[in-house]
Each structure stands twice: as structure tokens, then as C-alpha cells.
Amino acid sequence: AELRYAHVGAEGDIQTIYAAAAAEGIKTATNGEVTVTVYPASQLGGVAEMVDGVRMGSISMGHHDFASLARLVPEVAVFNAPFIYRDGAHALAATDPATSPALQAVNDKLVAQGIRIIGRIYRGDRHISSNFPVRTPADLAGKPFRAVPLELWVSMVKGFGAIPTPVEVAELPTALMTGVVVGQENPLTMIASNNLNEVQSHLSMTGHMRAVLAVFINEEIWQGLTEAQRSSITKVLDDEAKKSLQMATESEVKLVADLKGRGMTVLTEADGLDVAAFREKVSAQIKQDFPAFEAPLAQIAAVK
Amino acid sequence: MGFLVVIAFLSLFVLGFPVVYAILLPSILYVLIEGLPLGLLSQRITYALDSFPLVAVPLFIFVGNLMNLSGITDRIFHFAYTLVGRVPGGLAQVNVFGSLVFSGMSGAALADIGGLGRIEIDAMKKRGFDPAFAGAVTAASATLGPIFPPSIPLIVYGSVTSVSIVQLLIAGIMPALLCTAMLMLTVLVVATRHRHPRAERWPSPMEIVKALLPALPAIIAPALMVGGMTAGTFTPTEAAAITAVYVIFISGVLYRELTFAHLWNSALLTARSCSAILIIVASAALFGWILAVEQIPQTFAASLLALSNDPLTLLFIANLIFFIAGMFLDSTTATLLLVPIIAPPLVLAGVDPVQLGIVTIFNLMMGLLTPPMGLSLFLVSDIAKVSIRRLLRALLPFYVPLLATLAVLTFAKDFTLWLPRLIAQ
Amino acid sequence: MRLLERVLTVICVCLMAGIVIVPTTQVILRNVFTLPFIGAEELTRFLLICLVFVSYPLVVQNGENIVMGEIKAALPKRLRGIINVSISITAVAISLFLAWVTVTSISKNLLNATPTLSIPFWIFLGATFFGFAGAAVVHLVHLRKPPQADTNIAV
Ligand code: NA
Ligand code: NA
To answer: Which positions fall inside the Tripartite ATP-independent periplasmic transporters DctQ component domain (chain C) (predicted)?
Structure first.
């Protein structure tokens, strides 16, 4: 079988490295029976188009934030929820399609819509960048802060104390430069590769979200593979997921040093950053806005 | 199979099929033969327009139509003509210079043509210029918009390659100024040789003031918009909408010339122009998807890049690749498909990534002027009501300054990099 | 036909008005009331989709499709006639086919909606369907004498 694997990650991003390695690994593991061609950098369309393409089968597989599948099954967004994982290993365990009950419950509903989650990528923790020091939610009070235009992000930015303000990705650097918004949040790999250090002076290491991305495939194409091929693919993706966690952990240290070198002031708990205050405020806001998350959150917390 | 699609499109285009159908017919056949899900067709065509920066296109076309129908254009160009009518090709010079000013607001070539272009072409036609020449100047000067900040194509380039977007935007300033100067020089030469219409004498200071006052509220619009953007009040795309509201305001309240019929007709004309051009963008996205899946641009680029290791030769090859790609793909698709293939080996060979970015975008903007997929050319021909062939012939002299600019950008890297280095210090 | 064109015109003008009003309102909401509307960008994008497709039959009606007709115009009369007929047939066939494909897509995407505002997806695919179905009808009406077949200018 020949699979088309599309994603929106840019050159050098952990997700791009993951996809390339997974394609290579799948070819080897299946003795060339399954070949995967990767189309990075939105070559086959943006996020919404990619998800629809996978459902329809014009694209065989892809990956993105779990929340990008929330259009099909709203509860999927729970895996993106802020401050829910104890650490990276917990995040990987809780999103393991083979063992996590929370994920399996969601997957059953997704399969009915023609799409199945078969793996995950650890892309690193999301942190806040801004053009003034941010230590507590009070520092952001009443200020416009960029929110990904999805309910979950809007709720989280409210929890930060800021005013959730949508900005299109294509206009984000300009908007940060001119002050349409005073800050944004993303994994360090994105902040560094987009050179946001040039338009942002401070980095607050909140690590509010662990960016785990879902790797998903068209259900019909998945069922068209043999049992052996499927288990080889799952194995490759699981190994690559572990590598991505390792890569993210190692690169975080490097990226912090790199961004410091580029002139950013990095704030950690040692510098007075009150992560606990962020956790408390954000979790309260999410609990209030998403009552349906209660059950899956309990399942996620129960994962060892 | 992919190559057949390209050849079929070329043949149908040349035979005089409407561009939309020349693109769609081979693309649909490809999808049928390859057994891809048919839903891909409607999905791709619809999603292609799901782009916020594209919104600037109808907005600026609307501004252009409003200004024409409400008489603001006449005031601006009466002033411009009074000021420079004596200069050979005076209004054509205004056309070029206007694009430089406007490029501070618009991040896209099509927005420049739709907005300012319509105004300039009509004004030039009124003063006796050949519509084809007016169109050619407009199309050539629209290349400035995406080079000068703000620029959507440069931001796309920056996010694909991890090159600093701020550096890219600053690096575009000198090339844009150089290109403006070269285009104005060309206008001077062409206008002198062809004895284009010019005023009989120079204006008196009183005449200038008298012409300036009524045009002032419209002339300061770009300054207001750039001011609003730098202050963070709005983003470039939002600025397009604010411009439309501002023009409605000044023509309705200050000039009291705007009627409901003007507003209605402007909106309707805009809808049609915008649809005629963006339906091509939509079908081109399907065509681009097929080329991407077949990996044609990438294979083509990789085989050419293997020819050399010398940075200058590589840069020259990259020029060639982007120029050809620009003939078949819109600039965003070309950037997404080709830049990840071309940038790494060139940067490895020692080409400066910022310089490469400017060279790439300038090339792709020139591709917009070159058939078969010349979107700038199409839009101008739609506005000026001249045939594509006549337009192309009038455009020919303007390839000289454009290619000369490109040569400077390619071979004199310090010219591009001087300003960003200065600011980095 | 006249009435239909009139109705279509009204819709196009309203869509155009929306594309101006939504971003403007967003600027005011953000700067004056510091209360940005989260779905404004999405709404504007989707108004653009509707504008382009809903206006397309009017483009065809007015013979405004973009063409490079010069080479054809230089051909002998008979050959030109053959090409004109093929263009008309192709135009009708493609428009009808895409309209049909879009309807099929709509039935498979009934539950699909936009990520932020949850605007049902069938509205946009509906616009695409309308654009091509409308174009097919106009192309059919023009079959005997298309307004742009004989012009050798671009529009
Ligand atoms: Na610009
Ligand atoms: Na111009």
C-alpha cells in the first residue's frame, strides 16, 4: 500500500522529524509493503482541510493537535487540556492508543466518523512569550493575548487572566511586533523556528500545556492493511513517540539557552514565576467551561 | 501522469479555453483516472479560498471601484496630473510611485492591482494613455507590494524556512526602492520614445494648492492606514476593510458625492471581478495539489540543484526554478512546495537565507506577470479591458527593469543585506 | 431569469457588505471595547468563499471569465468553430460534474462544521454547488451564442 501522510509542521520542527522517521521506519518494518510519502508544511492544505482529507481518503494519514479533531468528537480536545499531565511520560501513557482507556473511548467515536488515532507525538511543552515580564496571571489582566480560535484555548487564555484575542497565523509576527496582542503561547520549537524572539522580550516557562499531537489515519485504509502490517505500523509509531519525548526533553534545554542567547529574558519559578497560580486559575476556568471533561480527566489522572 | 496534466493545461490555455476550465479539465481527469475520492474536488476548490489574507483582494477592489464611481479618483489624479503632467509619462510615474506608497499597506500584489490599479488605469486612460501601457505599468509596479513591508508572501517564506520574518521584511525595503527607481526610469524612456501625452506647461504653486486641497483626504489614506498598523490598531488585512470604510466616509460625508447607487454598483462590480480572479485561484489550488502529490516541482528542482555546488550558480538555478514555478503555481503554493527543497542546499552552500527569501519572492511575483498562470496579468486585463496578448507586448519593456533588479538582488547580496545588518547592530 | 439575476445581485452585495463590516467591527470591538469577537476571522474567510462562488454565475452571464483568446482568433474560421463548441461543451460538463460532486460531498459532510463558530459546512459547499450549478445553467443558455466565444480580448 502507498500512503500519503500530510501535516502542517515546518522544516526542523520535532513533528516534521517524527513524520520523516516514521515513514522510513514503516517502510523497513513492513519490508516495503507499505510505503509512506510525507507532505509537510501544509503542502496538501491547512489543518481543517487535512482532517477532512483524511476522513475522505484523499489523504491517508496526518497528525495535529488533538483539538483539531474536536469538530468530529468534541471530547478529543481533553487531551490538549492545560495542566492535566504530571510529566511527559504521563502524557505519552495517557495518549497511548493501545492502553489508555480515555483515548480508546474517544477512538471508538472517531472510528464511526471514518478516522482513527494510531499514534502520538510529543512536541514539547507550551510556554508563554510576551513583550513584558509575566510572572502571575495578574500581570496579564485586561491585556490582549493571542488565542488559537478554539474553545479550549479561549478558555485557557481567560484563565491566564488575559483577553483572548484571535490573530491569524499569517499575521502573528506582525501582530506581536505592532502590539495588536501583547503575547502568545507555543512550544519552544515553534517560538525559536519562527524567530518570535525578535518581537517578544520575555519567556515565562509555564509549561501549561504538554503539546501531544494525535497521529490519525483513514479508517477504511487502515482496515485495508493486513493485521501484521497494522501491528508493525503501530510499533513504529510507538517507538517514534518515545523518541519524540526524548528529543523534546533534550531540545528544551538547548532551546532555552538558544533563546536566551538571542536576547530573550527567561523567567522560571526561581525568578518568581508563579506556575501554581496559573495552574489554579486555568484549571478552574476549564472546569467551569468544560463540565464534560470530568470523566475523561479522571481516567487520564488514573493512568500510571 | 503529472506531466500530462501540465501539458493538457498549457494546450487548453493556448487554444483559448477560459483559464478556469483549462485548469479544471485535466485536474478532474487526473482525479478520475487515479481513482482519488471525488470529494477532493469540491473540498479543495472550496478550502483554497479559506484564507484570511485573500480577503484583502475583494476589499481593495471595492475601494478602487468606490473611488472611481464617487469621483475621488478624478480629484487625486487631477492633483497628480497638475503636479507631474509635464514630466514625460507623468501619470505613469505616479502609477509606479503610487504602488510604492500603497505597498506599505498591502501585503499582496493582487490587492495592489485591484485597489490602486483600477484607479490608475482609469485615470491614465482618461488622459489619453494607451490602456495596454496603463495596464502594463500597473502590473509591473504591483511586484513592489509583497517586497516592501507588510508582506504576506515574505511571512509565509519566513515560517516555512525559520528565517527571521523581521529581517526579511526589512531586507525588502532597499530592493523595493531600487525597483521603483528602475521602473520609473523605464517609464521615462518609453514615454519619451513613444511621445506619450504630457501637459503643455509646468503648474503654478497656486494651481498645485488648488488641486491638492480637494484630494487631500484621499491622499492621506495610506498614511492613516500605515499609522494604524504600526500602532497595533489593526492588522494588514483589517486595514483593507478600514480603508473601505474610510473611503465610504469621506465620499459620503466630506465630498457628499456618494449615492446608494454608487455603493451598490461598486459592490456588484467587486463581486464579479473578485469571483473571476479567485475562481482561478481556487482551481489553481487543485492543480497545485496534484503537482504536490506527483512531486513534480520537487523532482524538477532537485534535478536542477544537483548540477552545481557553487553558491552563485545555485542561486541562478534557483532563480530559474522559481521563475518557471511562478508560471504554473500561485506564490503561496510555490513557496510551500519548493522552498523546503531549495533553501537547505543553497544555505548549506553559503547563500544567505534572507537574500534567498527576497530573491524567491521577487521571482514568484514576476511569475504573476507571466502566462499561463499569470494572476496579475489576468486581473489587469480584466480591469483595463485589454487582451492578454496586447498587455504582454506592452509589458515587455518592463521585464528589463524587473530582471535588472533581480540581477542586483542575486549578485549583489550586500545591497539587500545592508539595511537588516544596520538595524541588527 | 431576470428575477433570478436580481436576487443573486442582492445576495452578492450583502456578502460584500459583510466582508467590509465584519473586520471593521472586530477592530472596533478590540480597540474600543477590548472585547474581541473570537470567530471574526473565520466568518470573514467563509463570507469570501460564499462571495466568490455565488457571484460566479454572474461572471459567466456577463462573459467575464478570463481567457487568452488571441491565438484562437488567428485560426481559420472552421477550426475556431470547433474549438468554440468544445469550450461550450467542456464548460457545461465541468460545471455540472462539479455541482454533482459537491452535492455528494454535502451529503457526506452534513455534520461537519467550522472549528470556531461551528457554522455547518454544507453552507459553504452549498455556495460551491450553487456557483457551478448556476454556471452550468448559464453556459447552457449561452450554448448557441456564448458572449465571449468570439471576442479575442481577454474578457
Ligand atoms: Na507591502
Ligand atoms: Na501601480
So the answer is: 19-144
State the total domains in chain B: 1
Which H helix or E strand runs over B375? helix B375-384
Q: pLDDT truncated to tens, each residue of chain A (304 aa)?
A: 899 999 998 888 899 999 999 999 999 999 999 999 999 988 898 898 999 999 999 999 999 999 999 989 999 999 999 999 999 999 999 999 999 999 999 999 999 999 999 999 999 999 999 999 999 999 999 999 999 988 899 999 999 999 999 888 778 888 998 899 999 999 998 898 888 998 999 999 999 999 999 999 999 999 999 999 999 999 999 999 999 999 999 999 999 999 999 999 999 999 999 999 999 999 999 999 999 999 999 999 999 8
Find residue A3's DSSP bridge partners.
Answer: A36
* Chain C residues within an 8 Å CB radius of A48: 114-115
Q: Which residues of A touch C (CB under 8 A)?
A: 48, 52, 56, 68, 70-72, 142, 144, 147, 149-150, 154, 163-166, 168, 180
**8 Å CB contact of B292 and A43:** yes
Percent composition of chain C: helix, strand, coil (DSSP 3-state, to 5): 70, 0, 30
Interface test with B, best of C10, C33, C67 (most B CBs within 10 A): C67
For residues A274, A280, A281, A283, the Cα torsion angle rounded to the nearest 10 degrees is 130
Neighbouring CB atoms inside 10 A of C76's CB total: 7
Angle between helices B375-384 and B260-294 in degrees, nearest 10: 160
Q: How distant is the Cα of B48 from the closest Cα of chain A, in angstroms? A: 8
- In angstroms, the CA C147 to CA A236 distance is 59
Task: Write the burial class of residue A227 (CB in 10 Å: 0-12 exposed, 13-18 middle, 19+ buried).
Answer: exposed
Which residues does B contribute to its contact with A (CB < 8 Å)?
Answer: 36-37, 39-40, 43-44, 47, 50-53, 150, 152, 155-156, 158-167, 229-237, 289, 292-293, 295, 336-337, 340, 343-344
* Angle in degrees, 0-180, between the axes of helices C2-31 and B260-294, rounded to the nearest 10: 90
The closest ligand to the CA of B168 turns out to be 1
Task: Verify whether the Cβ–Cβ distance C35 to A163 is below 8 Å.
Answer: yes
CB pairs under 8 A between A and B: 109
Query: Which ligand does the CA of B117 lie closest to?
Result: 2
Set of cell numbers at residue A94? 495517557
Q: Which residues of chain B make contact with C52, given a CB cutoff of 8 A?
A: 49, 274-275, 278-279, 282
Provide the grid cell at A267.
523567567
Question: How high is the ipTM of this complex?
Answer: 0.89
The residues, any chain, with a CB within 8 Å of residue A289's CB and separated by 6 or more, are A151, A155, A158
Collect all residues with Cβ–Cβ distance below 8 Å to A130 and sequence separation of at least 6. A140, A182, A183, A184, A200, A201, A202, A204
Domain span at residue B161? 2-424
Q: Which ligand approaches the C-alpha of residue B56 most closely?
A: 1
Return the amino acid letter for B59. L
Q: How far apart are CA B192 and CA B295, in angstroms?
A: 48
How far does the CA of residue B333 sit from the closest CA of chain A (Å)?
Answer: 7
Task: Read off the DSSP letter of residue B85.
Answer: T
Closest partner residue to C41 among A48, A52, A168, by Cβ? A168
What does the angle CA A237 – CA A243 – CA A244 come to, to the nearest 5 degrees? 85
The model's pLDDT over B144-174, given as tens digits with 9 standing for 90+, comes to 888 988 887 888 888 778 788 888 989 999 9
Shortest CA gap A30–chain C (Å): 33
Sequence spans of domains, chain C: 2-144
CB A245 within 8 A of CB A105: no
Tell me the C-alpha distance between B167 and A195, whole Å.
10
